[in-house]
Amino acid sequence: MDLTGTDPQHVLQSVFGYESFRLYQKPIIERVIEGGDATVVMPTGGGKSICYQIPSLVRPGCGIIVSPLISLMQDQVDALQQLGVNAAVLNSSLSSEDRRAVEEQLTHGRLDLCYVAPERATRSRFKDMLRRGCPAVIAIDEAHCISQWGHDFRPEYMALAELREAFTRVPCIAVTATADPPTQQVILDRLGMTDDDLFVAGFDRPNIRYVVEPKQKQSRKQLQQFIEQEHPDQNGIVYCLSRKSVERTASWLDERGHHALPYHAGLDGPTREEHQQRFLREDGLIVIATVAFGMGIDKPDVRFVAHLDVPKTLEAYYQETGRAGRDGRPATAWMAYRRGDVVRMRQLIDDSAENDEHRWTQRHKLNALLGYCEAPDCRRKVLLNYFGETMEGDTCGNCDNCRREVDAWDGTEAAQKVLSCIARTGQRFGSGHVTDVLLGKDTEKVRRHDHDEVSTYGIGSDRSKAEWRTVIRQLVAKGMIRVDVMGYGALTLTEACRPVLRGEEDVAFREPRGQDRSSSSSTKTASEDPLPEEGPERDLFEALRERRQALAREQEVPPYVIFNDKTLRAMVEHRPQTPSEFRALHGVGDVKLDRYGETFLKILQSFAESETRT
Question: Most buried among 4, 95, 147, 587, using CB within 10 Å?
Answer without folding.
Answer: 147
